[in-house]
Amino acid sequence: MKPINVGLIGIGTVGGGTYTVLSRNAEEITRRAGRPIRISAVADRNLELARQITGGACKLTDDAFAVVNDPEIDIIVELIGGYTVAKDVVLQAIANGKHVVTANKALLAVHGTEIFTAASQRGVMVAFEAAVAGGIPIIKALREGLTANRIQWIAGIINGTTNFILSEMRDKGLSFDEVLKEAQRLGYAEADPTFDIEGIDAAHKATILSAIAFGIPVQFDKAYVEGITKLQAADLKYAEQLGYRIKLLGIARRRDKGVELRVHPTLVPAKRLIANVEGAMNAVLVQADAVGSTLYYGKGAGAEPTASAVIADLVDVTRLATADPEHRVPHLAFQPDALADLPILPIGEVETGCYLRMRVEDKPGVLADITRILADQQISIDAMLQREPEEGEGATDIIILTHVCIEKQADAAIARIEALPALQGKVTRLRLETLG
Question: Which residue numbers are catalytic?
Fold first, then answer.
């Protein structure tokens, strides 16, 4: 049977892994796909690298559009990343009637609506399993495996760099800055780690997951995003003493009035499986009405784990290339004309528990003042920890865990607590999810 010809745009870490795995497992993949899948053209600015990886076994060029416009190419694999050239490449491929496989979460989170609309109109597929959680097949699970379910919420560790940093801070008691330098030395963090440590990468992925889970358009601009740069080792220690661990979670939750879409450091009960995901690993926890809780765990990055997802998409596209476009799995799991108009809730309307750490003068009546303020805002206390002051110190740390409350109530309480004369500095507030 005639092979499927693939044009690979970008042969860096993931592109090189894709070429290697596809070559190594060619026979197995052909048996599954029903026909051979071969990379017949590669575009990359570094032609010498492309030549080293491919051995010159396919056409090489530094012009991505030469591949996109090649009539012999059936599927374009876009692995260059970013919003600009990648968007032009993907839209041109769609306009040319070619299917697209991409690992570009940033592109889909920001421009996904435009791209999916163009693909639907042209009758081609855009597959993106590799865009979220690397080698974990979470997109396929949400779009197909859980299709009978009404999904209630998703909570995921979907950035390995930040999970490695938090694991090291907790295990070794080191500061954020110290662990970040170590992560950069080991290659877990980029020279410019902003997208990772500020939560932007996780928010791109959470946006995509929310769209598939709830059948809504991708709306990255409405996500609440908070990174881990302000976390202190003391907070990880106190959380541990209270039976929790701190993870950077991407959370999408269905509410009566809309959808919560947020990324931030989160206290999770230490007994939860997801709280015990360490190092650079990823995990996504899904709560659905029929199946209950399901957990997906594995490597969220790396050459071959991500290549695994890219090639799975290539096999899917190959199997369905000749199918009636009306009978393929929709890009966002729900039919394009049946997407819901659910609003993304502002962070002030989010409901979650709180961790509050405050440094106060060690004198009578301070704790009573704090608890009175919380009660005035209808916030109930779940647990409390008060550190004994060191000899000679006139101040101590108070840590309070609250039951679930509305964010704006917590904001109001924090503002009043910070106005107390006994308070030294600001209140540290983290959110808490029981994930039960």
Answer: 205
